[in-house]
Amino acid sequence: MKMLHLIPQVILLSAVVGSSASSATCLAPQRPFVPSDRVAAVEYADLIRQDFEDYIRDIQQYFQCLDGERARAFEEARAVSQDYGAFLSDGGSD
To answer: Where are the domains of the chain?
Structure first.
């Protein structure tokens, strides 16, 4: 019987862990490095060019991730707001 007081905490913890696990982690790519030494820049031009192309591809994926995460978070906030409204309607504001 003493364990019954833990039920709300378990439910809350499950909701927090479950929602954070479903959210995306969008990591911004690092900017391409361009050496200040002109000779080195010419010598490594192919690698530098590839770094820029990789960055452009990765930043596009990053923006898509952010857009997806924003949409997910917005939908979650809408659902939480509805749940809260239902909770208040059911007498949760005692």
So the answer is: 38-94
